[in-house]
Specification:
The strands form nine sheets. The protein has an eight-stranded mixed beta sheet, with no helix packed on it. A five-stranded mixed beta sheet has the order 16-17-18-20-19, covered by helices on one side. Strands 9-10-15-12 form a four-stranded antiparallel beta sheet, with no helix packed on it. The protein is built from eleven helices and 36 strands. Strand 19 and strand 20 form a beta hairpin. The radius of gyration is 30 Å and the shape is elongated. It folds into four domains: 157 residues, Neutral Protease Domain 2 (Neutral Protease, domain 2, Orthogonal Bundle); 203 residues, Sandwich (Immunoglobulin-like); 87 residues, Immunoglobulin-like; 75 residues, Immunoglobulins (Immunoglobulin-like), CATH 2.60.40. The N and C termini lie far apart (68 Å).
Length: 637
């Protein structure tokens, strides 16, 4: 799931509930594993042509770490060209190359390049086909570009090419700006094994102890999402009804995992249907979706078949989410990685909401906010210098968790109708679908759906850094209105003010509840709201819809009768013992006493305290209750 310019490679460890911290651990694992690949620079020598078709013929044995094959590529010249360059690891050996069945000369240099001399100049707009026969022992990077292993004593082979591993095992255009229009894949292996790859299985042919399985995939796909796996799989299917256009969910699992996998994957159709309801048709509905078990402890969302290290529900949801956000529409640069990872993380949260209910989704949001605000800096959108750091690209706190929570905040700002309308339009935009998108593309669709100007929102929450801390001061002068003043400080100076809809909850003395949304556009902004009961306490964002931290509530005691709000501080002046009395279910938390220099001289969590050790003078007492923080002047005799 790391999607670079066009990648969404996400590695998830199987767990029943993914917390924000676990997502961070996952992102760190991704960063470590992708470190060498991120240093790869797209080969400028491959930018002069557009690939339209691959016929991939692979011969493998899962007991042997080698491959032989023939790759036929049809491409169109973007400018006049006399030669064509492919990316191929120097460890692989090219045996022969033909152009339209005629032998042509070629060179393998030491820069992981294969340069093929064309028969004639290929003029701009014209197409030709070349076939490359090759073999070799792909270099193992310990991560899975091409790996052989065993499970329960049986050999297994898999590939995992994110984001730049494809050139390690087949000649390709290792470029994230060119999706291949269509592929045919033929996998030949010893006949006791079952092979799987992208697309729909077309045929199986057995000859001389070997089995050749043919798959066809007819949707645009980047090279890194093409993958194969071979072992003694057991297969079973679920069906998604898909409004009368059914398609299968095909599962390839180890025999020893069959029973548990059947139980765990049954939920996939439910999650699939939920995503279809929210975001439109499954992007590859004319083919299949599926899972293939492999020997690595995470997952990879290869188009139409996610490779799975486990069958945890949240891993299933995350990989499936990437079929829309990452595979159908892929982020157009590393800077926009959140368009893949933030979306997949949020869709995992939407799965929690759908299957577990509001309280579980509330806990999920709380965990994400805690992660996001654990540091005061960091933007969701990456700078140029950020893209040189693997750890920054795959930052769980920012690219994953903050990206997800910003999407939730957009949902609350726009409302469900406009939010999902905008996302459906984004995912079906013919200029973006099965291609690439950047953050301004998303903004345009959300603005069009909502008729809102979202420039300031994205400047604050995506392009710049940090989060707000709110101070809410309130008083109730009568039983039918409340006065609320909001102030804000920012954790990072890149944002002068976070414009946001701030959720506020009012609790009454007799159990009444009133939820407000305050459209906070400036500091010291005052709101007067009608309320039909006596307010006993005020809370900022009690359901965790807003990224913020260390918010405070203050009851303005100069404009409010304290006893009306269930708090008395006596005696005042005081000799030794001071008492804080609360009534009507108001809860006392703690008190702090300051001298007039602002120095803390006393604190306690008890509501009756002995002040005999404090010198005579004037002090400020701060009382923290669930109704808010109350400050009052006291005199020590």
């Amino acid at each position: 799931m790391v999607r670079l310019i066009a990648i969404s490679f996400f590695i998830l460890i199987g767990i029943s509930k993914i917390s924000a911290q676990e997502v961070i651990n996952i992102s760190e694992s991704e960063a470590k594993s992708a470190s060498k690949k991120v240093l790869f620079k797209a080969n400028p020598n491959t930018s002069n042509y557009d690939i339209t078709y691959h016929k991939l013929e692979f011969s493998v044995d899962p007991a042997v770490a080698s491959i032989s094959g023939k790759v036929t590529t049809t491409f169109t010249a973007l400018q006049n060209m006399n030669s064509v360059t492919f990316d191929l690891d120097d460890n692989m050996t090219v045996i022969a190359v033909t152009e339209n069945n005629n032998s042509v000369s070629f060179t393998q240099n030491t820069n992981d390049e294969l340069i093929i001399n064309l028969q004639n100049t290929l003029n701009q707009g014209n197409s030709t086909s070349v076939s490359i026969t090759y073999s070799g022992n792909p270099t193992s990077n310990g991560f899975g570009s091409f790996e052989v292993n065993t499970h329960n004593g049986t050999p297994v082979l898999w590939t995992l090419s994110e984001p730049y591993g494809a050139l390690g095992w087949w000649p390709c255009k290792q470029d994230l700006n060119d999706k291949i229009d269509e592929i045919d894949v033929y996998i030949t292996a010893p006949e006791q094994y079952i092979a799987v790859t992208n697309g729909l299985e077309q045929s199986v042919t057995i000859s001389a102890g070997n089995k050749t399985t043919h798959f066809k995939h007819q949707y645009p796909i980047p090279a890194y999402l093409i993958a194969i796996a071979v072992t003694n799989y057991e297969t079973y299917s679920h069906t998604v009804t898909n409004n009368g256009n059914p398609f299968p969910i095909v599962n390839y699992v180890y025999p020893e995992s069959l029973s548990s996998a059947q139980n765990s994957t049954e939920i996939t159709a439910d999650i699939m249907n939920h995503f279809i309801d929210l975001f439109g048709n499954y992007p590859f509905e004319n083919e299949k979706y599926g899972h293939a078990q492999f020997g690595w402890g995470g997952g990879m969302e290869h188009t139409t078949v996610s490779f799975m290290g486990s069958f945890d529900r949240n891993l299933i949801a995350h990989e499936l989410a990437h079929q829309w956000f990452g595979n159908k529409v892929t982020c157009g640069s590393w800077k926009d990685i959140w368009l893949n990872e933030g979306f997949a993380t949020y869709l995992t949260g939407l799965t929690v909401e759908h299957l577990d209910g509001d309280n579980s989704f509330k806990s999920w949001r709380n965990s994400n906010i805690s992660s996001i605000t654990s540091s005061t800096n960091g933007a969701v959108y990456l700078s140029d210098s950020d893209t040189t750091s693997v750890g920054r690209i795959f930052n769980g706190r920012l690219s994953y968790n903050k990206g997800a929570m910003v999407l939730h905040m957009l949902r609350k700002k726009l409302g469900d109708t406009d939010f999902y309308k905008g996302l459906k339009n984004y995912i079906t935009d013919p200029n973006l679908a099965y291609s690439y998108a950047k953050t301004p593309d998303l903004i345009a669709h959300l603005e069009a759906a909502s008729s809102l100007d979202l420039a300031e929102f994205f400047n604050d929450w995506i392009y710049n850094q940090g989060y707000p801390t709110y101070n809410l001061e309130w008083f109730q002068q009568s039983d039918n209105s409340i006065n609320i003043t909001l102030n804000q400080t920012q954790s990072h100076n890149s944002v002068s003010f976070f414009e946001a809809n701030v959720p506020v909850r009012l609790n009454g003395t007799n159990g009444e509840v009133l939820d407000l949304i305050l459209d906070n556009s400036k500091n010291a902004q005052t709101f007067t709201k009608t309320v039909s009961f006596t307010v006993s306490s005020v809370h900022i964002d009690p359901d965790f819809h807003l990224i913020s931290k260390n918010n405070t509530i203050v009851l303005n005691t100069e404009k409010q009768n304290l006893t009306l709000h269930n708090i008395e501080i006596f005696p005042n002046p005081v000799n030794d013992f001071l008492t804080i009395k609360t009534t009507n279910n108001t809860t006392f938390n703690k008190l702090i006493i300051y001298n007039l220099l602002g120095q803390k001289v006393f604190k306690s969590t008890k509501n009756q305290v002995n002040l005999s050790e404090i010198k005579k003078g004037i002090y400020i007492i701060k009382v923290d209750t669930d109704a808010g923080i109350i400050r009052k002047k006291i005199i020590k005799k």
